[in-house]
Design brief:
With 258 residues, the protein is of the alpha/beta class. It folds into two domains: 137 residues, Rossmann fold (3-Layer(aba) Sandwich); 103 residues, LytTr DNA-binding domain (OB fold (Dihydrolipoamide Acetyltransferase, E2P)), CATH 2.40.50. The protein is built from eight helices and 15 strands. A five-stranded parallel beta sheet has the order 2-1-3-4-5, sandwiched between helices. Strands 10-9-8-12-11 form a five-stranded antiparallel beta sheet, with no helix packed on it. A three-stranded antiparallel beta sheet has the order 13-14-15. The longest helix has 14 residues.
């Protein structure tokens, strides 16, 4: 890297851990300018597209889009960004990272380890091996252990007027943010779920439901096709609904890896 101030995006869904990393970086790399602190993967993708930072620290496990998803998108929207994964997983992750060209930090972050990572980042030219990154991401997707969190939702209870509906999650075409709540859209109509869309991301199956816009989560099984326009945006056609859904530019990069 050059002697110019470097920029950075941090993505960590736990506020205390995010602030701890900010504080540690302030001591280990005072010249580093943090341009965005993100609490989920969707915000991180948008920040990478907007700021094109020199470095991104990405928590692997985040609601909705994981750190692996964000890194895959970064290869398209901000290819010059150096990626550092932050993970609570030990041996498998370490083995995978050490065979790749990507830095990693284990939680809890040790100051000496962070200092060594900072030195490596500062010494690099910023050029990346896209093939090595893609291979590493694939190994991590396959081999990282599942979290001990709850199983993905199977049914949801939502209201349509005075009626309460029990909806099979597999029947949902997409979810749309509606102020503090979420609209659930199926082939048969719409209902209101009294859960914010960001909280919903934590309990949906990430292999089936993907965020394609800050306000939209789509069921991949419900997609009939995707078209990219000249501006880079995408439009999703659905199998069971007449309307189309907009995929914002940063999120289009995710579909290259699906």
């Amino acid at each position: 890297m050059s002697d110019l101030p470097c920029t950075c995006v941090i993505a960590e869904d736990e506020a205390l851990l995010r602030q701890a990393l900010v504080d540690q970086l302030a001591r280990a790399w005072p010249q580093l300018k943090i341009v965005a602190e993100c609490e989920d993967g969707a915000s991180a993708v948008e920040a990478l597209a907007e700021f094109r930072p020199d470095v991104a620290f990405l928590d692997i496990r985040m609601p909705g889009l994981t750190g692996l998803d964000v890194a895959a998108a970064a290869a398209q929207v901000s290819p010059g960004t150096q990626i550092v994964f932050v993970t609570a997983y030990d041996q498998y992750a370490v083995d995978a990272f050490e065979r790749g060209a990507i830095d990693y930090l284990l939680k809890p972050i040790v100051p000496e380890r962070l200092a060594a990572t900072v030195q490596r980042l500062q010494a690099r030219t910023g050029q990346h091996d896209a093939g090595a990154l893609a291979a590493l991401l694939e190994r991590l997707r396959i081999g990282l252990p599942r979290t001990g969190g709850p199983e993905p939702l199977t049914w949801i209870t939502a209201s349509a007027g005075r009626e309460t509906r029990l909806i099979l999650v597999d029947d949902v075409a997409y979810f749309r943010a509606d102020n503090k709540y979420t609209t659930v859209v199926t082939a048969d109509g719409e209902a209101l779920l009294r859960t914010p869309i960001r909280e919903l991301l934590t309990v949906l199956d990430a292999n089936t439901f993907k965020q394609i816009h800050r306000s939209t989560i789509v069921n991949l099984k419900a997609i009939a096709g995707i078209v990219r326009d000249d501006s880079g945006r995408g439009t999703v056609r659905l199998k069971s609904r007449p309307e189309t859904l907009t995929v914002s530019v940063p999120f289009m990069a995710l579909f290259r890896h699906m």
